[in-house]
Design goal:
5 strands; 3 helices; 33% helix; alpha+beta; globular; 97 residues
Length: 97
């Protein structure tokens, strides 16, 4: 799948949250990332993923599937609750092995 984004949206996201979409895409390769469907999405299938970006930061990324592409919508650092979810998830996975 090709990853795409609106360049204006990418710049706005960086100015607001300090996260570059180019770094955030690393979350898509994080084998321990947690992904859920966005229950508030109305017009298209959107998902939210929490995991590690290319710089090792815990981030939350929102994106949509459009045709054969992934369209990045937003990326921000995870809040304190979000930063606790990922380690908890990893611990639970390790306990099962």
């Amino acid at each position: 799948m090709k990853i795409e984004c609106d360049p204006i949206k990418a710049r706005t996201n960086f100015l607001k949250y300090g996260i570059e979409f180019a770094d955030a895409v690393g979350i898509l390769d994080d084998p321990h990332a947690i992904t859920i469907e966005d229950p508030d999405a109305e017009s298209e299938q959107r998902v939210v993923t929490i995991g590690l970006d290319l710089l090792g930061r815990v981030v939350v990324v929102g994106y949509a599937y459009r045709s054969d592409n992934i369209r990045l919508i937003s990326a921000r650092k995870a809040n304190k609750k979000g930063q606790k979810i990922l380690p908890y998830h990893l611990i639970q996975m390790l306990r099962k092995t």
